[in-house]
Fold:
Amino acid sequence: MSPLSNKVHRLLWPAAIVLCVNYALGSIRPHVVSAQESQEKFHAIRQTTIENGVRFLRSAQTGNGSFSSDPAMLEFEPALTAIAVTALLKCGVSIDDPQVVSSLQYLHGFVREDGGFYAADSKQRNYETCLVSMCFSAARERSTAATARTYRQLLDRSAEFLKHYQWDEGEKVTSNDAAYGGAGYGRHERPDLSNTSFMVDTLHELGASANDEAIQRALVFISRCQNLPSEHNNTPFAGKISDGGFYYTPADGGNSQAGTDDAGGLRSYASMTYAGLRSMIHAGLEPTDPRVLAARKWLAKHYSMSENPGLGEQGLYYYYHTLAKTMAVCDDPKFADTSGTQHDWKLDLVRELSDRQRNDGAWVNRHPRWLEENPVLVTSYALLALSYCEP
Structure:
């Protein structure tokens, strides 16, 4: 110990003894954090985390309003820019902000005659149209009446495009086919639950009711993505695992991004289970429906903020976004796991994202699957997740 440290030690030691005695005698009591103080701290952490993330996204915008400075990401325009701008708008950036205006002008360049929003040579037209539609919807809500009407016209046409793109009788697919009711990227010859949930989210956002024919067709496909045998699911995979969770697709021989078990069952994983649950709620299923109950039971058994259960760190930030928007639809302030423990999911998620944020305000997944090594995409997912965590 240095001479200076030794001197400080001698000076502080008597004071520490007095402090301990006073605590023991009750003359000094520890400060108890009130609920209001706890909420204020939570709000401050969330706000700081959002501000840092927004600052990073602003710095990542290119001169033409896009967010695809990485040449490898050009293939994913306009989806990447759409999700980034939606994140900015939902995190409080003004519709009149010059950077937002520039990006919206850029996105208008992808409006197509058939009502879709996609790149000219796109192989993922459903995905791109869904994300741009959600961005334009967020812009419409924040625009003047005249501009909002223009967005409304564009969005009415995009809704019809998405319905036309759905796998149904128009593609000579009958209701007995495992692909029926689903939506896919377009580059794969089969639909999947991720794209189908994007489609259902978008149609719901644009005003479609639970009884909308396209949403009810989607429900047929979504029910078949669940590991739950029932009158709604007679696929070969339904009873092999039967844990109530969801996987990627039953179509074209079936596929789970979490792999298969020894019996050929398609393993459930959390991001698709949240997506499946949310889509079922949008389709009007009651909380007592066996499909809803089974999904919630699986999620209660696998509650986690440290990983995407079933996939570990793969797709982690997609998972955070999907979890947050599903819990917002469920409108549950607490999440009860199978042990009965009540989790404040908003607080847990804010803490996790705050801890994972880089010094420059961005997030990056060390596991690169599904492009999550790209900071613009991942930061957009994180900001959208935080937008649902308002205390």
The first strand starts at residue 335 and ends at 336.
